[in-house]
Design a protein that fits this description.
single chain; 561 residues; alpha/beta; eight-stranded mixed sheet; five-stranded mixed sheet; 21 strands
């Protein structure tokens, strides 16, 4: 496939120079799926979703099971973040198979994280800092958050947020080697065709895959781990075609040749741009930029905007899809980082980064024997969209819970829903993400409001702001931010009513649940989190799992201390 040079001339030329034709089909497929989801949600149409997962009678199940060529505990569909998860489960002794529609371990985004979050991999015992140092491309002295303002702009300095740039491809290649050493089965170029479970819940699940040559294979496993990303067919089926509520269409490149210097608009290898705007709204969207220096003078740049799926909301003017956004990216790049025409693009990065807007651990019941992870679960922050950081931060928690569920043979029950990276403090951030989208006639609305919000965070200090951007927000933090905005910018009251509308009721309900969760964590601290974990050992198995899941969530959020 090729890009139409008459409608997207800059993109067509850039992709040709990058020799990136293999990415075009994937981008067009993502755009087509997103367009269908967005149109049908807005118009209230029933979505036609392929039924990839199905339940078979014992007779039909037995006939299908006879064709299986592999039997084990866990099959991982998709091999991005799932490789890190698969490695931890293999280390715990479970029999694992990983397959992907492409080559296992390939990614089309780069990853950033903080050192304290990366420490989780080392603490788990499966990784060493010597190994991780080999895939760290850069570690910054500072990270910036700034919203465009003609006369002045508040700049947040966050030196411990997303300050390590990782070579995602190298990290996953190393993970693949580690999996092979443990005897894990790795199957390249296999596309998911179907998942079958039996009406007899004692039977394992069956996964049917197709190879590029048309051959079909069937794998048998206790749990299918869905790591197929934003448009996973299993997630589409689970949510009846609406797999997320918020999304950031994101494009960019890994590039070199930018003018270097310490001025805010220049490329400084010691500084990461976490969240920046350089102009007011364009094409009805407030465009955001990120820039993360890599090896040498490499710079990974992202352009994105926030969007939501709102049932019954008129579509209005079309929003840019990935291909449109790439065209704007190449047209506007010099306004973000000047290169005087010398920029050289090495590879594209892109995706629809999703999030759910809910304080429920799972808005829809899981498909039996299917566990979503990463973008397929869409449970990272709806504000910062740090999927990699969320996955790593919660890795020991999710693999430990899955190990516990498997050991008591409850993988085909509702206990599997407890194996989740859900954080109640993160889910509440859906409210903040709504104010990242233009809501009125003035193009400066988003920047003006966020300027005041950044001033509030700056006033409370770097540690406070770092907790917010690293998904460690406390109950008391939330109130300081809300009350601080009322004091700093009183028009927020009217704006909130206009932006949220009837969703204000949802916010009130979510706030009450958030408050209850904060009170429960406070009571847990009074008893002692370690004491609660010891007490869990004497509880019936389902209550034990629920308590351990709750304590694990507190630990990740920092609510255990």
């Amino acid at each position: 496939m090729t890009i139409d040079a008459t409608t997207h001339p800059l993109t067509a030329a850039a992709f040709a120079r990058m020799d990136a034709d293999e990415h075009i089909e994937r981008i067009l497929r993502m755009d087509a799926i997103w367009a269908g989801i967005r149109t049908r949600v807005a118009t209230g149409q029933q979505m036609a979703v392929p039924q990839v997962w199905s339940e078979l009678t014992p007779t039909h199940y037995a006939a299908t099971a006879r064709t299986s060529c592999w039997q084990g505990d866990l099959v991982y569909a998709g091999s991005g973040l799932g490789l890190l998860h698969a490695y931890e489960m293999a280390r715990l002794g479970w029999r694992v198979l990983v397959f992907d529609r492409g080559e296992v371990g390939c990614v089309h985004r780069e990853w950033n994280i903080s050192r304290s979050e990366l420490q989780v991999l080392v603490d788990g015992g499966g990784w060493t800092w010597a190994e991780l140092d080999g895939v760290i491309m850069n570690e910054y002295q500072d990270g910036l958050v700034r919203f465009y303002r003609k006369n002045e702009a508040v700049t947040l300095h966050l030196p411990e947020v997303l300050n390590i740039a990782l070579d995602a491809g190298a990290l996953l290649a190393l993970a693949r080697q580690k999996l092979a050493t443990l005897g894990v089965d790795i199957r390249d170029f296999k596309t998911l065709d179907a998942v079958h479970v039996s009406t007899d819940a004692q039977q394992p699940a069956l996964v049917r895959v197709c190879g590029t040559d048309g051959t079909v294979q069937t794998y048998m496993a206790r749990v299918i781990v869905d790591g197929m990303g934003t448009v996973s067919p299993l997630s589409l089926q689970r949510f009846a075609g609406r797999p997320y509520a918020g999304v950031c269409p994101t494009v960019g490149t890994v590039a070199t040749g930018f003018v270097e210097g310490e001025a805010p608009e220049l490329h400084d290898r010691r500084v990461g741009d976490i969240l920046l705007t350089v102009s007011d709204a364009q094409r009805t969207q407030q465009y955001m930029w990120e820039g993360f220096p890599g090896r040498g003078d490499e710079l990974t740049i992202y352009l994105f905007y926030y969007d939501t799926l709102i049932r019954g909301k008129p579509l209005g003017r079309p929003t840019p899809n990935l291909l449109d956004l790439f065209e704007d990216y190449f047209a506007l790049l010099e306004t973000y980082k000047p290169s005087n025409g010398a920029a050289h693009h090495h590879k594209p990065v892109y995706g629809y980064i999703p999030a759910r807007h809910s304080l429920q651990r799972n808005e829809a019941p899981l498909l039996r024997a299917v566990l979503p992870i990463g973008d397929a679960a869409a449970q990272q922050s709806p504000l910062t969209f740090c999927g990699f950081g969320s996955h790593v931060r919660n890795l020991r928690r999710t693999t430990g819970m899955l190990d516990a569920v498997l050991r008591v043979n409850l993988e085909q029950s509702d206990a599997l829903q407890l194996v989740s990276p859900f954080q109640i403090n993160v889910s509440l951030n859906w409210v903040f993400s709504r104010f990242m989208q233009p809501w009125g006639e003035a193009d400066a609305d988003v920047n003006q409001l966020q300027h005041h919000f950044m001033a509030v965070l700056e006033r409370y200090g770097t540690t406070f702001a770092t907790r917010f951007f690293r998904d460690e927000m406390r109950w008391s933090d939330y109130h300081k931010m809300i009350l601080g905005m009322f004091v700093a910018y009183l028009p927020i009251v009217g704006i909130a009513g206009r932006v949220l509308g009837w969703h204000t009721i949802q916010w009130i309900a979510d706030y009450l649940r958030f408050t209850w969760a904060g009170a429960l964590a406070a009571a847990g601290r009074m008893v002692g989190v370690t004491t609660l974990e010891r007490m869990a050992a004497d509880l019936p198995v389902r209550w034990r799992l629920r308590l351990l899941a709750l304590v694990g969530e507190w630990r990740v959020m920092g609510w255990d201390r």
